[in-house]
Amino acid sequence: MVDRDPSRRPTHPGAMLREFVLPAAGISVKQAAQMMGVSRQNLHRILAEKGPVTSEMALRIGKFAGNGPELWLAMQQAVDLWDARQAIGTDIEAIPTVGAA
Amino acid sequence: MVDRDPSRRPTHPGAMLREFVLPAAGISVKQAAQMMGVSRQNLHRILAEKGPVTSEMALRIGKFAGNGPELWLAMQQAVDLWDARQAIGTDIEAIPTVGAA
DNA sequence: AGTATGTGTAAAACGATATTTTACACATGA
DNA sequence: TCATGTGTAAAATATCGTTTTACACATACT
């Protein structure tokens, strides 16, 4: 298996929710937000890939979707890591490695 | 393999850094913080298991320790999820599952 | 046409969080 | 005694996640 293309931002968990979960369930954004106990706008931000899936949100979505929170959190983590890499830029190179490797 | 005991908070990544990485490298907290490009107090909070390993911190620690950021982030994620579960409490039960399962 | 309903968006307000800086007390070893 | 590292705390700052309120737009229904 090849590595992910590091120049491309990983798929946001909101895409999966928007493309698969909601359509399969045939549930509107408004309904889904109410079921999950969050505001419609907050859910919308996630679906638009503009807001993060926090740990608490992962629990809510995981319960709602019927798969656990892990997948949602892992997808968000990949995005966060990619973003952090952009933010930290070349500063990372200045950090020495102390370990054996 | 048995599941983790859900009543016990998962091991904080700071414990691993404190117990293994720093001792093995023979490096002081002050030195390590400077090498990683963060304040001594910030690193201290992590070692004391009082502060989180953010995505950016995971990149720094991962470079410093010589293993990538993934392990550090995964450990923190487990803690975050556990904390979120405590915070959300029984509210999670009110969320219906729409999926097949 | 008019009415209801869902959607996309934006701004305000709020509380919480992550981090740095500054500061001080304590311990250890030269 | 002096220097150095450590534990800790408070202040200051910037950023973030969320809800509420608001408005424009679209679609469907009657």
From TrEMBL, chains A, B:
<dbReference type="InterPro" id="IPR013430">
    <property type="entry name" value="Toxin_antidote_HigA"/>
</dbReference>
<dbReference type="InterPro" id="IPR001387">
    <property type="entry name" value="Cro/C1-type_HTH"/>
</dbReference>
<protein>
    <submittedName>
        <fullName>HigA family addiction module antitoxin</fullName>
    </submittedName>
</protein>
<keyword id="KW-0238">DNA-binding</keyword>
<feature type="domain" description="HTH cro/C1-type">
    <location>
        <begin position="18"/>
        <end position="64"/>
    </location>
</feature>
<dbReference type="GO" id="GO:0003677">
    <property type="term" value="F:DNA binding"/>
</dbReference>
<dbReference type="InterPro" id="IPR010982">
    <property type="entry name" value="Lambda_DNA-bd_dom_sf"/>
</dbReference>
<dbReference type="Pfam" id="PF01381">
    <property type="entry name" value="HTH_3"/>
</dbReference>
